[in-house]
Amino acid sequence: MGCDGGTIPKRHELVKGPKKVEKVDKTAELAAKWRYCALSQEKLKRPIVACELGRLYNKDAIIEYLLDKSAERPNSEVVAHIRSIKDVKELNLTDNPAWKGERRNIKGDCYEDMHCSMFICPVVGLEMNGKHKFLYLQTCGCVFSERALKEVKTEICHKCGDPFQEDDLVMLNGTKEEVEKLQRAMEERRSKAKTAKKSKKSKDTKVSKAQDSTVTAGSCDASETKLTSLNGESSSDSAPGPSTSGECSKTLKAPLGPVIGSKRSIQDMKDKSETFKSLFTSHSSAKRTKDQISNWVTHTPYHF
After folding, report:
1. Complete edge-to-edge strand list for the sheet that includes strand 88-90
2. Burial class of 88 by CB neighbour count within 10 A (0 to 12, 13 to 18, 19+)
3. How many angstroms separate the CA atoms of 272 and 275, rounded?
4. What's the rounded Cα separation, in Å, for the pair 165 and 170?
5. What would the DSSP string read from start to end of the chain?
6. Residue 19: left (phi > 0), alpha (psi -120 to 50), or beta?
7. CA–CA separation, 295 and 304 (whole Å)
8. How far apart are CA 225 and CA 255, in angstroms?
9. Cβ distance 94 to 122 under 8 Å?
10. Which residues make beta-bridge pairs with 94?
11. Are 205 and 183 in contact (CB under 8 A)?
12. Residue 289 pLDDT greater than 90, yes or no
């Protein structure tokens, strides 16, 4: 079928070879990273946040992801390292005065510069279009070009005046090697924070145990004082030296008198006075004599 009517096919029309690999335009790919959200693939709009690996996101897209991580998303692997909203930083960007908006060329009758960006560097005025490297500070979120930080070396933010260190600088949309370096630094920071949290927790546990031992020693001293007062003994008769929780069982003495709930008679307490003993019916003064005891006579009438 086909090839009739004098048609002469060529070899590439009859023989199907391997498909050519489509090459992605690096310029277009790089420009897309600075114009679109890395998660939702929508155009970047304020508020814009950046992660510790230097990727740009819309803040509402990150919040939606954190609220429902089980939902299927096409680019969920790029935010797998984001655990909470604290892992991203809202950027303090500088608007480009030459930016006229998305609909500046509706009619198509004027030149449209595709490299024009919404934001610029506040120091040297370079545009954030992917041609120049930009960094942001994790302390305040201000964004500067790498050229500005090299030309004006300082440890104070050029825009807000907050101090920063070299470790606080994060490269935005860096190369593969730069992203790997940022990932190693992120894992190191998180491991240090986890270790510090564990040490703080163990320290708090030790402090609570020390407080519990102090409370136990105080309760032992209080119980010793109570038992001593029941025995009528003074505090000078107690064992010398401070009482501790470990020596609580040694310092406590058994009371000489009856303890509450015991079955011993009150007359067995030799230290008590006779006046106190006479209050009880078991005392000799409370017993009746033989004259006071009445003789009971049983009368049995037989006249019924």
Report:
1. 56-58, 48-51, 88-90
2. buried
3. 8
4. 11
5. ----SS----HHHHS--PPPPPPP-HHHHHHHHHHB-TTT-PBP-SSEEEETT--EEEHHHHHHHHH-TTS--TTGGGGTT--SGGGEEE-B-EE-TT---TTTTSSS-S---TT--SEE-TTT--B-SSSS-EEEETTT-BEEEHHHHHHS--SB-TTT--B--GGGEEEET--HHHHHHHHHHHHHHHHHHHHHHHHHHHHHHHHHHHHHHHHHHHHHHHHHHHHHHHHT--GGGSPSS---STTHHHH----SSPPTT----GGG-TTS-HHHHTTSTTSGGGS--TTTSPPP--------
6. beta
7. 25
8. 11
9. yes
10. 120
11. no
12. no
- Burial class for 282, CB neighbours closer than 10 Å (0-12, 13-18, 19+): exposed
For the chain, what is the mean pLDDT? 76
Mean pLDDT of 113-124: 84
Is pLDDT larger for residue 206 or for residue 236?
A: 206
Quick one: CA dihedral 39, 43, 46, 52, positive or negative? positive
Q: Under 8 Å CB-to-CB from 42, ≥6 apart: which residues?
A: 36, 58, 61
pLDDT in tens, 171-214: 999 889 999 999 999 999 999 988 988 888 888 787 777 777 77
Q: How far apart are CA 257 and CA 230, in angstroms?
A: 8
Question: φ, ψ for residue 136 (rounded to 5)?
Answer: -130, 155
Residue 236 scores a pLDDT above 50: no
Instruction: Note whether 178 and 54 are within 8 A (CB).
Output: yes
pLDDT in tens, 159-180: 888 899 888 999 999 889 999 9
Task: Note the pLDDT of residue 61.
Answer: 92
- CB atoms near residue 47 (< 10 Å): 12
Instruction: Give 253-273 pLDDT, tens digit per residue.
Output: 444 544 455 555 544 555 556
**% of the chain exceeding 70 in pLDDT:** 67
